[in-house]
Amino acid sequence: MLHPDNSALLFIDVQGKLAQQMPQAEQLFHRLEQLLRGALTLGLPIIWMEQNPEGLGGTLPRFVGLLEGRSPLVKQSFSGWAEPGIRAAIVASGAQQLLLCGIEAHVCVYQSASDLLAAGYEVQVVADAVASRDPNNRQLALDRLVGDGAQLTSVEMALFELLGGADNPAFPALLSVIKQRADD
Questions:
Q1: Which of 3, 14, 90, 158 has the fewest CB atoms within 10 Å, i.e. is most exposed?
Q2: pLDDT tens-digit series, residues 63-118
Q3: Cα dihedral angle (12, 77, 75, 2), rounded to 10 degrees?
Q4: Catalytic: which of 75, 101, 115, 128?
């Protein structure tokens, strides 16, 4: 079970034209927005990564607005854990349970998750908030990660798990985030 005092969200490389090439991009973006809003509501540390922004472009503006007051951590390695600044941010968060979302599932999400598992973290990949240009690559990444010890979750499952119960003061705000439709 996820616990809000021991969890962090890793928001991985939702950038430029590459993000627009994901299958069902608008549905993916909606789920990413829900996840970010939920993490913010619950006060989770958010570690925001960008892969080579000079080459790929920056994070899509719709997410930059949600992440106001934060700065992306730039990486050249596909694995966030391989970058000293990102590694330091993860360690500084104090979290042992890491939720991963973003793109591409079979490259940066997969390599980050694999390295985090090897480092002893509990990794949960938010399956409905990760994508690859080729859905077969996404599925292969999810299958391999489960085989390596990662757990799969969904946006709603993770947020309700972190919430814990309807008596949590954040329940009304989180319920509003979860009920928000993609066309709102």
A1: 3
A2: 999 999 999 999 999 999 999 999 999 999 999 999 999 999 999 999 999 999 99
A3: 30
A4: 75
* The total number of residues written for the chain in this structure: 184
pLDDT digits 0-9 by tens, 120-133: 999 999 999 999 99
Q: Are 139 and 167 in contact (CB under 8 A)?
A: no
CA angle 49–39–127, rounded 5-degree value = 70
Q: Is 179 a catalytic residue?
A: no
Pairing of strands 122-131, 97-103: parallel
The label of the residue with tokens 């409905």 reads: 128
**Tokens 């002893």 sit on residue:** 120
Q: Are 64 and 56 in contact (CB under 8 A)?
A: no
* Exposed / middle / buried, residue 69 (Cβ in 10 Å: 0-12, 13-18, 19+): exposed
Active site includes 128?
Answer: no
Cα–chain-centroid distance for residue 121? 15
Residue tagged active-site, from 13, 101, 115, 128: 13
Active site residue 134: no
Give residue limits of the domains in the chain: 4-179
